[in-house]
Amino acid sequence: MRISVREVEHVAMLSRLELSAEEKQKYAETLSAILEYMEVLNQVDTGGVEPTAHVLPLKNVFREDRLEECLAKELALANAPEEEDGCFKVPRLV
Amino acid sequence: MNRQYETVIGLEIHVELKTITKIFCSCPTAFGGEANTHVCPVCLGLPGVLPVFNEKVLEFAVKAGLALNCEIASFSKFDRKNYYYPDLPKNYQISQYDLPICRNGFLEINSGGGTKRIGITRVHMEEDAGKLLHGSSSIVTSGYSLVDLNRTGVPLIEIVSEPDLRSAEEARAYMEKLRSILEYLDVSDVKMEQGSLRCDANVSLRPLGTEGLGTKTEVKNMNSFRSLQRAVEYEAKRQREILEEGGRVIQETRSWDEERGVTVSLRSKEEAHDYRYFPDPDLVPIVIDPGWVAKLKASLPELPDARKERLVREMGLPEYDASIITGSRDLADYFDAVAAEFNEPKTVSNWLMGELLRLLNASGMEMRENKIAPADLAALLKLQASGAISGKMAKAVFEEMFATGKSPETIISEQGLAQISDEGALAAIVDKVIAGNPGPVADYKSGKEKAMGFLVGQVMKETKGQANPGLVNKLLKERL
Amino acid sequence: MSLTSLTAHELGELLNKREISSVELTKAYLRRIEEVDDQVRAFLTVTGDLALKQAAETDEKRARGEKLPPLAGIPMAMKDNMCTKGIKTTCASRILYNFIPPYDAAVTERLLAAGAVLLGKCNLDEFAMGSSTENSGFFATRNPHDLRAVPGGSSGGSAAAVAAGEAVFALGSDTGGSIRLPAAFCGVIGLKPTYGRVSRYGLVAYASSLDQIGPLTRDMRDCALVMNVIAGHDKRDSTSAPLEVPDYTRFLVDDVRGLKIGLPREYLGEGLDDEVRGWVKRAAETLEKLGAVCEEVSLPHTRYALPTYYIIAPAEASSNLARYDGVQYGLRVEAGDIVSMYSKTRSQGFGEEVKRRIMLGTYALSSGYYDAYYLKAMKVRTLVKRDFDLAFEKYDCLLTPTSPTPAFEAGEKTADPLTMYLSDVCTIPVNLAGIPALSIPFGLVGGRPVGVQLIGKAFDEGTLMRAGYALEQGTDLTRPRPVLERTVEE
Predict the structure, then answer these.
(1) What is the average per-residue pLDDT within C324-352?
(2) 3-state DSSP call for residue C204?
(3) C209 given a catalytic annotation
């Protein structure tokens, strides 16, 4: 197994996902198979190769510091699961 | 056995830039406002939106870097810093990781009678988060929080210092110097109490004479220069006590509690942070033209150190006065404006450092809120110098000017404060006082010098304090 | 021919000649949706009232004698990962089951401004992650050519709608083949434009450095007409190319004489269905007969493209999908504290494959693994792109299969994610390189359509249209009629 149940737990925690024991086991299996498949990349010599983060050679795309209209408050809050005093309401932090 | 410890401090300072709009969208950066009214789909992080970088942010960040003697990157980019928090709508912050816009700078502070150079590791650009409101209770005890996203996406620069600071005083001096430079550059409001200037302090101790770094704590939540100094002092003392008792400092984040004057542990999170930085695919790289940087550099305003030297060299101000006057750009500009019309720099600096700063402090006002026009202050100083009003009167007039913004001439005429320097008018009153006080007159004539004081006082009383005291003395002596 | 099997330009002529009205046309499509969508299940949301209102508006304008652009009054559909102001946009995910965007995507604005009539929003694999439209959080879409088969994915709803006569054309999005694979499986034309050609503003991101919106149409002229509307620079998308856009219809010239076409041998080897290989060869022969020159070429890093993609795309997705947390919009599963609220919401809101990719991407970016996975993948991406750059020094475009097989059975690959991933082996390299590619139907295998893929140079969609148009004019193989269509008409 390329990735253990413990590692799956860690990754799930970083991803804010809650998994059952069964799901953890299953993800450990499928993720391991996928990671194993990726081992093939180790055969590629990438010495001296620059990484590609963008395929287009674009640079310096800027916006002028000019105001535009904001969203109406009702629209900003229209999808809120819970709202209070014009704010999004969330449960306690800790 | 007691060992000697040295405090090692590095500061991470977040500065909100005073652009008109946010860093990646066209919403206003204005402070305050009704909750969730300075927002749009982009800063709300709605599904499908994309950021577009505000060019003014780059200009301000590069200006700050130049003023802090940094190297400006020729190639820079934005990265995503991934973490979950309800004030962060996308659950990642657009920031800069391995290629910040500025690196390797320094600034100089006054310390122990000399100057000391404090290294600046980097300056990078990022977006601010929103605000969490916890009602009346604290973050720990509140049952829920409210999220206001007005501040989300306000541009920030983070300025990271080297761990070169050795005391709470130095930390404060560094922070004050930085604020002054940013104020001169006009890139930020630099108001700690409004959060446009924020500071986290990394504090650790090490045995004196050693080079390595001890375990550090990160102290947050200082809202003024004074609280920065107090918090660092407290934290250094706390760590010293732990070490002296043979204990170990725990690496953690601590929050400064202003009321209790202590730092408290922010419950260490169960997870170690793993921000999973990677280049933001929605934003393209920034390639800096050296010619543009050179132009910006040439356009930088005179900075506090240069201005201070100029005041010493050209105006003959003492070092101390010059550093107080140039500590704030507004004050220095004010000084220049007054001195341009009243060419006695030391007198001007005395008035600014004494009367003006005293009144500003007492009323909790900023320099820019001062109502006295520089020309009016110069006029007041001229009136005093010519003897038209006494020093005591000048101070009274000044207070009135500070309160109302009226010119000294207006105040003097409204309150009938002009000094009586007319010999003819005074002579009559002097004669009347001599005639009405034969006893003291006899005393004086018999050699009792003190009686002269009484007679002068009587003349002042008759004139409601407006008589020129020198002239009164002269007239009395002539007659006795 | 019924109205529901004509192309946009054919219908445009009828509208211009006043032989039909847009309202009649729209009603015909809404009726068709009612008739067949319980079998095909292409639509997540049908916006009938709105469509009829838009149709009536274009009819009024036409009646006033206004000259209208080519797509005015034409009923179309959009994949449900493109924002539509006031209309639910779910990405086929339970986590966005009730999300109503307060803004329009750039493509929505452009299509509506051009007078196109929005019939509704189409099904997809949740957040565009999948190759069969079986990963939808709501229901699976089926292939109109054979209801036992999948329509391909992730734009399966869009492709199926066009094939089944439920929309004249549709928009899809393509991150690793999500326009081209369903186009091939459903027997329609699908174009993935060059990265940066069409604004991504308002397209709900899966993998930002790979995502691109494109048309699904019944013929090449429609493809050109839709591109004329949606392509072009947008200042709200920093990765949008600031380039002029040609009138794509001028590439529909039925002349490929002298065109140099490369046949990459890595796409024609192991794992390819023999009959599919036969159709690709026949497409090459057809083009040669029409005057093009076809030669074998090698793209040696092709086999590394799939693993590279499955690092880069999930890594970006893990960050892009972090915002679905129950705070501002979408599903919220209540809990006592914020961390539990996040975890419960995300666990119940996301489907299995989305969770798998989020975790895969998180893993690839996490401390200690970044260099081995993410950085390595970005470097291999450079090599994959370089292969294409070299090939394009000699060739005008490349010809490959779109998929190694025709549409597979529903349920056939759902148990094994890796097998499912392999469906995209021919399409993924194109996304890594950011270049354009067209899938055009060419023949049938066991009654199911086969697509051939034409791959072009960056911003040279025109050459693909020229070659595609020649195939279309030179054969009768590019417009397979779905079973559904035949049964309804008979």
Answers:
(1) 97
(2) coil
(3) no
